[in-house]
Amino acid sequence: MTTLYSDLNSAQQLKNAPLSNPQGLRDVPGNILKDANQPTIISPDLNATQAAIQVSDLRKTYGEGNQAVDALRGVSLTVFPGEVVGVLGPNGAGKTTLMEILEGLRKPSHGTLQILGNDIGSRAHTEARKKIGVAVQNSVLPPLLTVAEILKLQASLFGPQSLDVEAIIEAVVLGDKRNSRVQQLSGGQQQRVALALALVGNPEILFLDEPTSQLDPQARRQVWNLVLRQRNHKKAAVLITTHQMEEAEKLCDRVFILDNGQILAQGRPDDLINQYCPEQTLEFTVREKFSNALFAQDAQPTFTQQADGNFSAVFKNKDINGVFRILIEQHIIDIAAITQAKVTKQTLEDVFIKLTGRGIRD
Protein backbone atom coordinates (compact mmCIF):
# COMPACT_ATOMS: atom_id res chain seq x y z
CA MET A 1 0.00 0.00 0.00
CA THR A 2 1.40 3.38 -1.01
CA THR A 3 1.86 6.25 1.43
CA LEU A 4 -0.41 9.25 0.88
CA TYR A 5 1.29 12.62 1.22
CA SER A 6 -1.07 15.23 2.64
CA ASP A 7 -0.87 18.50 4.59
CA LEU A 8 0.79 20.15 1.63
CA ASN A 9 1.96 23.66 0.82
CA SER A 10 -0.18 26.13 -1.06
CA ALA A 11 -1.68 25.17 -4.40
CA GLN A 12 0.48 27.71 -6.24
CA GLN A 13 3.70 26.33 -4.72
CA LEU A 14 2.63 22.81 -5.53
CA LYS A 15 1.82 23.77 -9.10
CA ASN A 16 5.48 24.72 -9.52
CA ALA A 17 6.89 21.91 -7.42
CA PRO A 18 9.18 19.19 -8.80
CA LEU A 19 7.47 16.15 -10.28
CA SER A 20 9.50 13.84 -8.05
CA ASN A 21 9.49 14.01 -4.26
CA PRO A 22 11.42 17.01 -2.90
CA GLN A 23 14.93 16.15 -1.73
CA GLY A 24 15.11 14.98 1.86
CA LEU A 25 11.54 13.71 2.02
CA ARG A 26 11.17 9.99 2.51
CA ASP A 27 8.35 7.72 1.40
CA VAL A 28 7.92 5.95 4.73
CA PRO A 29 4.62 4.13 5.32
CA GLY A 30 2.51 6.05 7.78
CA ASN A 31 4.42 9.33 7.43
CA ILE A 32 2.80 12.46 6.09
CA LEU A 33 4.59 15.18 4.17
CA LYS A 34 4.84 18.10 6.59
CA ASP A 35 6.75 20.55 4.45
CA ALA A 36 8.88 20.75 1.33
CA ASN A 37 12.03 22.60 0.33
CA GLN A 38 11.80 25.61 -1.92
CA PRO A 39 9.91 24.42 -4.99
CA THR A 40 11.68 24.32 -8.34
CA ILE A 41 9.80 25.64 -11.35
CA ILE A 42 9.10 22.84 -13.80
CA SER A 43 7.19 22.19 -16.97
CA PRO A 44 5.01 19.17 -17.75
CA ASP A 45 6.73 16.44 -19.72
CA LEU A 46 5.75 17.84 -23.13
CA ASN A 47 8.57 15.88 -24.75
CA ALA A 48 7.27 12.55 -23.51
CA THR A 49 7.27 9.93 -26.24
CA GLN A 50 3.72 8.98 -25.28
CA ALA A 51 0.92 11.35 -24.37
CA ALA A 52 -1.21 10.29 -21.45
CA ILE A 53 -4.41 11.39 -23.23
CA GLN A 54 -4.65 11.85 -26.99
CA VAL A 55 -7.87 12.97 -28.70
CA SER A 56 -8.15 13.70 -32.43
CA ASP A 57 -11.16 15.04 -34.35
CA LEU A 58 -13.63 13.82 -31.75
CA ARG A 59 -17.29 14.19 -32.72
CA LYS A 60 -20.49 13.23 -30.97
CA THR A 61 -23.98 13.57 -32.41
CA TYR A 62 -27.18 12.80 -30.53
CA GLY A 63 -30.28 11.90 -32.52
CA GLU A 64 -30.73 11.72 -36.29
CA GLY A 65 -31.97 13.83 -39.17
CA ASN A 66 -33.69 17.05 -38.20
CA GLN A 67 -33.43 16.06 -34.54
CA ALA A 68 -29.63 15.65 -34.64
CA VAL A 69 -27.61 17.68 -32.12
CA ASP A 70 -23.83 17.99 -32.48
CA ALA A 71 -22.47 17.92 -28.94
CA LEU A 72 -18.82 17.74 -30.04
CA ARG A 73 -17.55 18.99 -33.39
CA GLY A 74 -13.96 18.04 -34.15
CA VAL A 75 -12.35 18.31 -30.72
CA SER A 76 -8.60 17.53 -30.57
CA LEU A 77 -6.45 17.76 -27.46
CA THR A 78 -3.41 16.20 -25.81
CA VAL A 79 -2.55 15.88 -22.13
CA PHE A 80 0.98 14.87 -21.16
CA PRO A 81 2.24 13.12 -18.01
CA GLY A 82 2.57 15.56 -15.13
CA GLU A 83 0.18 18.10 -16.66
CA VAL A 84 -3.06 19.54 -15.28
CA VAL A 85 -5.34 20.60 -18.13
CA GLY A 86 -8.66 22.37 -17.69
CA VAL A 87 -11.67 22.34 -20.01
CA LEU A 88 -13.77 25.49 -19.62
CA GLY A 89 -17.13 26.12 -21.18
CA PRO A 90 -20.64 27.39 -20.44
CA ASN A 91 -23.47 24.99 -19.73
CA GLY A 92 -24.19 22.86 -22.79
CA ALA A 93 -20.74 23.44 -24.34
CA GLY A 94 -19.95 19.70 -24.49
CA LYS A 95 -17.66 19.36 -21.48
CA THR A 96 -19.48 16.48 -19.80
CA THR A 97 -19.93 14.64 -23.10
CA LEU A 98 -16.18 14.89 -23.70
CA MET A 99 -15.38 13.56 -20.23
CA GLU A 100 -17.89 10.70 -20.47
CA ILE A 101 -16.40 9.56 -23.79
CA LEU A 102 -12.89 9.63 -22.33
CA GLU A 103 -14.10 7.71 -19.28
CA GLY A 104 -15.64 5.06 -21.53
CA LEU A 105 -19.22 5.88 -20.55
CA ARG A 106 -20.26 7.00 -24.06
CA LYS A 107 -19.16 6.06 -27.55
CA PRO A 108 -18.01 8.77 -29.95
CA SER A 109 -19.61 9.23 -33.35
CA HIS A 110 -16.22 9.85 -34.93
CA GLY A 111 -12.59 10.38 -33.99
CA THR A 112 -9.65 8.62 -32.36
CA LEU A 113 -8.91 8.42 -28.64
CA GLN A 114 -5.96 6.96 -26.82
CA ILE A 115 -5.35 6.61 -23.09
CA LEU A 116 -1.76 5.77 -22.11
CA GLY A 117 -1.13 4.81 -25.73
CA ASN A 118 -4.07 2.40 -25.95
CA ASP A 119 -7.14 2.86 -28.12
CA ILE A 120 -10.28 3.21 -26.01
CA GLY A 121 -12.21 -0.04 -26.12
CA SER A 122 -9.17 -2.22 -26.87
CA ARG A 123 -8.06 -5.09 -24.64
CA ALA A 124 -4.97 -3.12 -23.63
CA HIS A 125 -7.15 -0.19 -22.63
CA THR A 126 -9.21 -2.45 -20.38
CA GLU A 127 -6.01 -3.25 -18.46
CA ALA A 128 -4.93 0.41 -18.47
CA ARG A 129 -8.19 1.44 -16.80
CA LYS A 130 -6.65 0.31 -13.50
CA LYS A 131 -4.42 3.37 -13.80
CA ILE A 132 -7.33 5.82 -14.15
CA GLY A 133 -9.23 7.68 -11.43
CA VAL A 134 -12.62 9.26 -12.15
CA ALA A 135 -14.78 11.71 -10.20
CA VAL A 136 -17.99 12.55 -12.06
CA GLN A 137 -20.04 15.68 -11.44
CA ASN A 138 -22.97 13.95 -9.75
CA SER A 139 -21.69 10.76 -8.16
CA VAL A 140 -24.23 8.19 -7.02
CA LEU A 141 -22.66 6.51 -3.98
CA PRO A 142 -23.96 3.49 -2.02
CA PRO A 143 -26.08 5.26 0.63
CA LEU A 144 -25.77 2.63 3.38
CA LEU A 145 -21.98 2.20 3.29
CA THR A 146 -19.79 4.28 5.58
CA VAL A 147 -16.99 6.49 4.26
CA ALA A 148 -14.38 3.99 5.45
CA GLU A 149 -16.24 1.00 4.00
CA ILE A 150 -16.67 2.46 0.53
CA LEU A 151 -13.02 3.51 0.33
CA LYS A 152 -11.76 0.14 1.57
CA LEU A 153 -13.92 -1.56 -1.04
CA GLN A 154 -12.52 0.69 -3.76
CA ALA A 155 -8.95 0.17 -2.55
CA SER A 156 -9.39 -3.61 -2.65
CA LEU A 157 -9.98 -3.40 -6.41
CA PHE A 158 -6.53 -1.91 -6.97
CA GLY A 159 -4.48 -4.10 -4.63
CA PRO A 160 -0.94 -3.08 -3.57
CA GLN A 161 -0.91 0.10 -5.70
CA SER A 162 -3.75 1.66 -3.66
CA LEU A 163 -3.22 4.49 -1.19
CA ASP A 164 -3.70 4.14 2.54
CA VAL A 165 -7.44 4.50 3.22
CA GLU A 166 -7.13 6.15 6.64
CA ALA A 167 -4.62 8.67 5.31
CA ILE A 168 -6.80 9.64 2.39
CA ILE A 169 -9.84 10.03 4.65
CA GLU A 170 -7.85 12.55 6.69
CA ALA A 171 -6.56 14.22 3.53
CA VAL A 172 -10.09 14.98 2.30
CA VAL A 173 -10.97 16.22 5.81
CA LEU A 174 -13.52 13.52 6.58
CA GLY A 175 -11.82 12.03 9.63
CA ASP A 176 -14.81 12.70 11.87
CA LYS A 177 -17.11 11.15 9.24
CA ARG A 178 -15.20 7.91 8.58
CA ASN A 179 -17.94 5.83 10.26
CA SER A 180 -20.87 7.86 8.90
CA ARG A 181 -23.04 6.43 6.17
CA VAL A 182 -22.97 8.18 2.82
CA GLN A 183 -26.66 9.11 3.11
CA GLN A 184 -25.82 11.11 6.24
CA LEU A 185 -23.28 13.31 4.47
CA SER A 186 -23.85 16.75 2.98
CA GLY A 187 -23.45 17.34 -0.75
CA GLY A 188 -19.98 18.80 -0.27
CA GLN A 189 -18.90 15.89 1.91
CA GLN A 190 -20.13 13.40 -0.67
CA GLN A 191 -18.16 15.28 -3.31
CA ARG A 192 -15.02 14.83 -1.20
CA VAL A 193 -15.77 11.10 -0.93
CA ALA A 194 -16.00 10.97 -4.73
CA LEU A 195 -12.59 12.62 -5.02
CA ALA A 196 -11.14 10.18 -2.47
CA LEU A 197 -12.52 7.30 -4.54
CA ALA A 198 -10.79 8.71 -7.61
CA LEU A 199 -7.48 9.02 -5.77
CA VAL A 200 -7.40 5.83 -3.72
CA GLY A 201 -6.18 3.72 -6.66
CA ASN A 202 -3.09 5.96 -6.97
CA PRO A 203 -3.92 6.75 -10.63
CA GLU A 204 -1.68 7.91 -13.46
CA ILE A 205 -4.65 9.71 -15.06
CA LEU A 206 -7.38 11.67 -13.29
CA PHE A 207 -10.66 12.70 -14.90
CA LEU A 208 -12.39 15.27 -12.67
CA ASP A 209 -15.75 16.72 -13.72
CA GLU A 210 -16.55 19.81 -11.60
CA PRO A 211 -14.78 18.33 -8.52
CA THR A 212 -15.23 21.43 -6.32
CA SER A 213 -18.65 22.73 -7.40
CA GLN A 214 -20.23 22.15 -3.97
CA LEU A 215 -17.23 23.01 -1.79
CA ASP A 216 -16.47 26.10 0.26
CA PRO A 217 -13.27 28.05 -0.53
CA GLN A 218 -11.16 26.32 2.13
CA ALA A 219 -12.24 22.82 1.05
CA ARG A 220 -11.69 23.82 -2.58
CA ARG A 221 -8.05 24.65 -1.89
CA GLN A 222 -7.59 21.37 -0.06
CA VAL A 223 -8.80 19.61 -3.20
CA TRP A 224 -6.33 21.60 -5.33
CA ASN A 225 -3.53 20.44 -3.06
CA LEU A 226 -4.58 16.81 -3.37
CA VAL A 227 -4.76 17.02 -7.16
CA LEU A 228 -1.34 18.64 -7.36
CA ARG A 229 0.09 16.09 -4.93
CA GLN A 230 -0.95 13.30 -7.27
CA ARG A 231 0.43 15.20 -10.24
CA ASN A 232 3.77 15.80 -8.51
CA HIS A 233 4.21 12.44 -6.76
CA LYS A 234 2.83 10.14 -9.48
CA LYS A 235 3.49 12.35 -12.53
CA ALA A 236 -0.22 11.98 -13.15
CA ALA A 237 -2.03 13.61 -16.06
CA VAL A 238 -5.15 15.46 -14.91
CA LEU A 239 -8.08 16.56 -17.08
CA ILE A 240 -10.54 18.72 -15.18
CA THR A 241 -13.73 20.60 -16.07
CA THR A 242 -14.62 23.57 -13.91
CA HIS A 243 -16.80 26.65 -13.66
CA GLN A 244 -14.32 28.22 -11.23
CA MET A 245 -12.06 30.64 -13.11
CA GLU A 246 -9.76 31.11 -10.11
CA GLU A 247 -9.43 27.33 -9.97
CA ALA A 248 -8.44 27.15 -13.63
CA GLU A 249 -5.89 29.96 -13.31
CA LYS A 250 -4.20 28.56 -10.20
CA LEU A 251 -4.48 24.83 -10.81
CA CYS A 252 -4.11 24.30 -14.56
CA ASP A 253 -0.95 24.30 -16.67
CA ARG A 254 -3.10 24.73 -19.79
CA VAL A 255 -6.78 25.31 -20.49
CA PHE A 256 -9.07 24.63 -23.43
CA ILE A 257 -12.05 26.94 -23.92
CA LEU A 258 -14.94 24.93 -25.36
CA ASP A 259 -18.21 26.28 -26.71
CA ASN A 260 -20.86 24.75 -28.98
CA GLY A 261 -18.80 21.58 -29.16
CA GLN A 262 -15.68 23.29 -30.54
CA ILE A 263 -12.40 24.43 -29.00
CA LEU A 264 -12.12 28.20 -29.37
CA ALA A 265 -8.69 28.65 -27.77
CA GLN A 266 -6.06 26.76 -25.82
CA GLY A 267 -2.91 27.64 -23.90
CA ARG A 268 -1.47 28.60 -20.54
CA PRO A 269 -3.85 30.85 -18.57
CA ASP A 270 -1.40 33.77 -18.51
CA ASP A 271 -0.68 33.42 -22.22
CA LEU A 272 -4.39 33.47 -23.08
CA ILE A 273 -4.89 36.58 -20.94
CA ASN A 274 -1.95 38.33 -22.61
CA GLN A 275 -3.16 37.31 -26.08
CA TYR A 276 -6.85 38.14 -25.83
CA CYS A 277 -7.13 40.64 -22.95
CA PRO A 278 -3.77 42.39 -22.53
CA GLU A 279 -5.27 45.58 -21.09
CA GLN A 280 -4.75 46.50 -17.46
CA THR A 281 -7.11 48.64 -15.39
CA LEU A 282 -5.84 51.65 -13.42
CA GLU A 283 -8.15 53.22 -10.82
CA PHE A 284 -7.53 56.14 -8.47
CA THR A 285 -9.40 59.02 -6.83
CA VAL A 286 -9.12 62.72 -7.75
CA ARG A 287 -10.84 65.82 -6.43
CA GLU A 288 -11.95 67.00 -9.86
CA LYS A 289 -12.06 65.72 -13.43
CA PHE A 290 -9.08 66.35 -15.70
CA SER A 291 -8.97 66.75 -19.49
CA ASN A 292 -9.39 63.66 -21.62
CA ALA A 293 -7.47 65.42 -24.41
CA LEU A 294 -4.21 64.49 -22.71
CA PHE A 295 -4.70 60.88 -23.72
CA ALA A 296 -5.17 58.97 -26.93
CA GLN A 297 -8.78 58.31 -27.91
CA ASP A 298 -8.53 54.61 -27.05
CA ALA A 299 -6.91 55.35 -23.68
CA GLN A 300 -9.21 57.96 -22.18
CA PRO A 301 -10.49 57.58 -18.62
CA THR A 302 -14.02 57.24 -17.35
CA PHE A 303 -15.12 59.20 -14.28
CA THR A 304 -17.59 58.25 -11.56
CA GLN A 305 -18.54 60.72 -8.85
CA GLN A 306 -18.38 59.33 -5.32
CA ALA A 307 -20.53 60.14 -2.31
CA ASP A 308 -17.87 62.47 -0.87
CA GLY A 309 -17.79 64.56 -4.06
CA ASN A 310 -14.48 63.17 -5.33
CA PHE A 311 -14.20 61.30 -8.62
CA SER A 312 -13.01 57.80 -9.35
CA ALA A 313 -10.91 57.82 -12.53
CA VAL A 314 -10.52 54.52 -14.39
CA PHE A 315 -8.16 53.79 -17.29
CA LYS A 316 -8.16 50.56 -19.30
CA ASN A 317 -5.02 50.36 -21.37
CA LYS A 318 -2.19 48.08 -22.49
CA ASP A 319 0.42 50.68 -21.48
CA ILE A 320 -0.41 51.59 -17.89
CA ASN A 321 3.16 52.85 -17.31
CA GLY A 322 2.63 55.34 -20.13
CA VAL A 323 -0.58 56.53 -18.48
CA PHE A 324 1.25 56.99 -15.17
CA ARG A 325 3.94 59.03 -16.95
CA ILE A 326 1.40 61.48 -18.37
CA LEU A 327 -0.44 61.77 -15.05
CA ILE A 328 2.76 62.71 -13.24
CA GLU A 329 4.15 65.00 -15.96
CA GLN A 330 0.84 66.91 -16.07
CA HIS A 331 0.77 67.11 -12.25
CA ILE A 332 -2.58 65.33 -12.11
CA ILE A 333 -1.27 63.03 -9.41
CA ASP A 334 2.03 63.07 -7.52
CA ILE A 335 4.41 60.22 -6.76
CA ALA A 336 2.89 59.68 -3.32
CA ALA A 337 -0.59 59.26 -4.81
CA ILE A 338 0.60 56.39 -6.96
CA THR A 339 0.70 54.15 -3.88
CA GLN A 340 -3.06 54.66 -3.55
CA ALA A 341 -3.74 53.71 -7.17
CA LYS A 342 -5.12 50.28 -7.93
CA VAL A 343 -3.84 48.34 -10.96
CA THR A 344 -5.51 45.07 -11.95
CA LYS A 345 -4.92 42.66 -14.82
CA GLN A 346 -7.66 41.11 -16.86
CA THR A 347 -8.60 37.56 -15.90
CA LEU A 348 -9.32 34.25 -17.55
CA GLU A 349 -13.02 35.05 -17.14
CA ASP A 350 -12.53 38.18 -19.27
CA VAL A 351 -10.93 35.98 -21.94
CA PHE A 352 -13.82 33.53 -21.70
CA ILE A 353 -16.46 36.24 -22.12
CA LYS A 354 -14.58 37.81 -25.03
CA LEU A 355 -14.37 34.48 -26.88
CA THR A 356 -17.83 33.09 -26.13
CA GLY A 357 -19.84 36.27 -25.68
CA ARG A 358 -21.34 34.98 -22.44
CA GLY A 359 -20.49 34.16 -18.85
CA ILE A 360 -19.21 30.78 -17.71
CA ARG A 361 -22.56 29.82 -16.15
CA ASP A 362 -24.83 31.12 -18.92
Mean pLDDT across all residues, rounded?
83
Strand numbers in spatial order across the main sheet: 6-7-8-3-9-10
Q: Looking at the structure, what is the overall shape? A: globular
Q: Which architecture of the largest domain does the CATH hierarchy give at level 2?
A: 3-Layer(aba) Sandwich
What pattern of helices and strands is seen along the backbone?
HEEEHEEHEHHHEHEHEEHEEEHHEH
Total domain modules: 2
User: What is the terminal-to-terminal distance?
Assistant: 44 Å
Secondary structure class reads: alpha/beta
Give the C-level CATH assignment of the largest domain.
Alpha Beta
Helix content: 25-40%
Give unreliable regions as ranges: 2-10, 18-42
Would you identify the CATH H-level superfamily of the largest domain? P-loop containing nucleotide triphosphate hydrolases
Into which percentage range does the β-strand content fall? 15-25%
Largest sheet: 6 strands, mixed
CATH topology assignment of the largest domain: Rossmann fold
| Rg for CA atoms | 24 Å
Number of strands: 14
- Count of DSSP H/I helices: 12
Topology diagram in text:
Elements: H1 11-15, E1 53-62, E2 69-79, E3 84-88, H2 95-102, E4 110-115, E5 118-119, H3 123-128, E6 132-135, H4 147-158, H5 165-171, H6 187-199, E7 205-209, H7 217-234, E8 237-241, H8 245-251, E9 254-259, E10 262-267, H9 269-276, E11 280-286, E12 302-305, E13 311-317, H10 320-329, H11 335-338, E14 342-345, H12 348-356
Parallel strand pairs: 3-8, 3-9, 6-7, 7-8
Antiparallel strand pairs: 1-2, 1-4, 4-5, 9-10, 11-13, 11-14, 12-13
Helix pairs in contact: 9-12
